[in-house]
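In this notation, each integer encodes one residue's backbone shape. One such record reads:

___
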Amino acid sequence: MERKPLSICTLTWDQLALTEKFVASVRRNTTVPYELIIVDNGSTDGTADFIKRQADKYHLFPQNTGFAHGFNQAFSLAEGEFVLAINNDTELPKNWFEKLRDTFDRDPRCGLVYPCYTFGQKVGLRWWPGTKVKQLPRFSKELPAAVAILSKLPIIYGELKGFSEEYQIAGGEDLDLCFKTWSAGYNIYLDERVLVKHKGHGTAAKKLPNWKELYTKNGDFFQAKWQSYFKKS
């Protein structure tokens, strides 16, 4: 069987209506052959049954194993040349893959490409698509939110070993991935031509009562782990 050029990976934890919209946008706006991989973190609202019908590959955890472990499980199932790690509270626009892939064709040291989004960190927040593809400053903590990230499977899961599972279920893994990418000698880009519709806080933050506390702990851990690199930004 011929290898597909793209694996689209997402996580779910209830919020079935959001996942339905996400999958519809994938089907509608992805023009290259792809596989849709969904990892569920213990949903109880019918999401698991939907996944069984809709995903090309899936894994169902009995409980929430976290962002990093969930995506790494999805990566382990992936067979595409490229892999998109994307939140399920999103909707993809037309021609998104062709535009994001373009940067990998132009820069052999491209490691990650972020699209812009309608909800998230200021760096990538936009109301309409732009025209520029910007290289992000190395070892900067001012980074886009991990709403969607395109990489090559041998890079993100082979060389970088996916998202770090040292963090608790409240963020930090996305920043860590960027610093791993830079430390391995790759570049990171923000593609303003691609605007992903993002609801925001459609998953973990709504359902974890101690999310802020965990997020703070993860931030302290990240700071300690990468402190020596901050002066390089």
Notes: The chain has eight helices and nine strands. The radius of gyration is 17 Å. The mean pLDDT is 92. The chain has one domain: 6-232.
